[in-house]
Amino acid sequence: MDHGRNRRNREALLDAARSIDHAFSARELHQAAKKLQPALGLSTAYRALERWREDDLIEDAGTRDSEAVYLMCAIGEHHHHLVCASCGSVSTLDGCALASVRKAAEAVGFELNDQALASLPGRCAQCAAA
Amino acid sequence: MDHGRNRRNREALLDAARSIDHAFSARELHQAAKKLQPALGLSTAYRALERWREDDLIEDAGTRDSEAVYLMCAIGEHHHHLVCASCGSVSTLDGCALASVRKAAEAVGFELNDQALASLPGRCAQCAAA
DNA sequence: GCAAAGACTGAGAATGGTTGTCAATCCTGT
DNA sequence: ACAGGATTGACAACCATTCTCAGTCTTTGC
Q1: Considering the entire predicted model, what is its pTM?
Q2: Chain B residue with Cα closest to A85
Q3: pLDDT tens digits for chain B (130 residues)?
Q4: Strand D proximal to B50 Cβ, under 7 A
């Protein structure tokens, strides 16, 4: 079984990550998870992100205001996200948008970093207008 | 006219940036330029990068060992680079490899950050083998 | 020429996100 | 209940980058 603080912490972090609908930083995740588990420390949030990254549960979504941001996506198939650098909002692109690039790269023996390119940076319509 | 230390510093930094054939960090640029102008300070290297970035003389090439790296490319036409995360070596892709992505993004009102996507991260053949 | 005004520089301090350390706490198997 | 091991939160340490500032250089007005 798996009771007690550890499990509650892990659940709080997972629930927080899943409930945030935009790209989030370690600090944001920590603050959101703290609402469920007030004693939860920042280190634990960083450690969760580290583990999730190893297990490919989250993807690196670049940086916003000099903070690294991540996003958790439930879709299993290979696809890409458009991440707004201002507000962090996420749009999903169906299918692999980089197939042609990957092909061109392979032609010179270069293997693209899929993890780094899962999220593509830019600016959403709303932030571009403002 | 434009004599004296200022000009010599600027030239040393430009010469250094142009002579480096791979993606370089602020520290690398500083060390290379110091061989031409030993008194040159690290702050000045950072300031040069800042100005070059504003003037689009360099492009952001991601990070390597938790240092931001840049590359200076003389080609005027729009194109992309493949940057090895291990050794920093650069391969050039002719033409715009992201046209289809840009189109898909525009369909949802999202404008891609061209500057950030000018360099695509990955691993070169040599480093992948090692 | 010369001096004052202003821009630039180098050294070092400050910043801040991230990582490391460590004693205390928790969980599991016995 | 207890021992061994893993996890945790608080805090220190790290380090790339930015900020600050007094000293220096460059230019401009005369």
Answers
A1: 0.92
A2: B113
A3: 445 567 899 999 999 999 999 999 999 999 999 999 999 999 999 999 999 999 999 999 999 999 999 999 989 899 999 999 999 999 999 989 999 999 999 999 999 999 999 999 999 999 999 8
A4: yes
